[in-house]
Amino acid sequence: MKCKVCSEEIRNCYLNKTTLRQHRMCFTCNFWREHLINDKKLAGQHKTCMIDGTHYIICDEDSKSSFRGFGGARFQIEFNDGTRVVTTNLWCQGEPEGYWKQHFPDNARFENNLKWQKIGNCSYLCEEK
Hints:
This protein is an alpha+beta fold.
């Protein structure tokens, strides 16, 4: 069976195959479908953001988990509506591509001009000079 969005073959994976087949989507398209639904549910709560084409989730600052997004680094985010959020629990989902890109417009920016920069074989979120 092929994905109804991108035409990729729907492969077996650790995710429940039934979910992928039910929506007739590959893992990647289903991933972005779920984020789109979640973003709409959280609209206006400043819990998700798109910055320079990259999707992020701002998780609970009071989380008892020992895992924090970006290892607990501090981020200052300004949303297009002027709301400012400071977080030490930011998680990156990556960049939606193809069909999905149009559904995730930028709605925020990093206040300290952070940009993804490739250093060696890895990409890092660094302050742009």
